[in-house]
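ok so i was messing around last nite and threw this chain in just to see what happens. nothing serious, just curious
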Amino acid sequence: MENKFIRGTFFLTAASLISKVLGFIYIIPFMALVGEQGYALYRYAYGPYTILLSLSTVGLPLAVSKFVSKYNELGNYKIGLTLLKYGMYLMVLTGFISFMALYFSAPILSEIVVRNDDSGGNSVEDTEYVIRLVSFALLIIPAMSIFRGYFQGSKSMGPSALSTVMEQVVRIVVILVGAYSVIHIFNSSIRNAVGIATIAAFIGGIAGFIVLVIVFIKRRELIKKERDSSQSNKEIPINSMFKELIGYAIPFVITGLAIPIYQNIDIYTINTLFHSIGYTNNEAELINAVIGLAQVLVLVPVSLATAFSMSLIPGITSAFIGGKMEEVQHKISQTLQAIMFFTLPASIGLCILGKPVYTMVFGLNKNPELGGVILQWYSLAAIFFALFTVTAAILQGINEQKKLIIGILIGISVKIALNLILVPYIEALGPILATYFGFLVSIFSNIYVIKKALQYKFLPLFQQLQEVFLLVFIMSLSVWGVKWLTELWLSETLGIYSHALITSIISIIIGVFVYLGIGLRLPFVKKILERYKKSAS
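result:
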């Protein structure tokens, strides 16, 4: 069980990291092609698409993972295949309904986010166009995601990992090649380039789905053999099966929507809020785009939390169903330690190096002054996102879904209220602080429920994390010192971009060297690396 958990974590973590890194890298040339205005238009399309995607899957992929894991633990392998069959039918139906909903609501959404009375920035027609193009992805992604849920519930993470990487690679190739061709070969508009970028989600989804189908066909005989050899196979009425499944699924919908909802609150309120305090449409869209770029950087380390939580759910469910409470607590401690080890230094590093890193990545013509400040303030969101994702996964694994939903809804309410309150006073920093407070409410709620339901003691965890905190503190001092010395010694004849590039590279190298150089000697870190070596072998 332990080896499967670690191996699954390794595969999903690697795939998620590759996907996030690729998703971060492609933004740089894509921004160079379409600019802030084009990127803002891209965000207008992907914001509501992400919400509809979560609603169309109705939480079933992760619910299927939990369902299959439970019944496999009980020896009933047949029910997993039955669920996959009928779940696929349901995903095709809900995907089509969501496609229709997004396609035909595009005019309404466009008028919410873009003003008709301002000639600057993107138009309502442009926004409507890209939203309708991205809606086609809803026809394929839900069906693909339920396949992933089946494999993860069977503790076979490889197919999901391979499918995730393939989907992202194909999507990015289409985005970059398509946008470049539209602008530089066909001399067409930014709107059409962004249109190609949005339809790429559909094409990438097809590629990821094909990978899963091929793997399933290759394993079909083995799966049938495992099903037929089991002595515990029992038929469950379809109605009862879906009733149980929906009970699992609803919390996954809410949890999966949490980060996208926070992002969409910003996408669909920032323009209006900044218009109300005197900003033009161009200026408001600039802030909207820069916050989106900061989110791209911050969400790279958060991919670790996503990967861990996906593989955490089946393992915790199996242990919880089997009454193995010590194993449940061990998995919780193991995951939280690893999450903090990876996300904490990344967040602090981005906070210290906000301006030079933003300038290095996006260049001088992408408002590095504003971007650097926003990235510095937004960088700590990686810690909040990671802790929320993992604690939410824990609550789902121990069947505390209702309390999880309450905590999420309260947090979202806090976010909306603080956006309205803070933006008029602290402008661009308002949405960032509102996000922090909203997630803090949800995280503390999750921690309280975990402590109460499992009698889990967080004090030993904090004691175990002291080494990480000390290590991050030492790394932070070294990064700050190197940044200060580098900026002091660099010749004033160098350009601003050269300063940012050299400062970022040297500071990051020294930070990684110090963090890993000391960290590799710590017992806690040695255990993490030993687990990963076993999972990779």
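not much to say yet. The chain has a mean pLDDT of 84.
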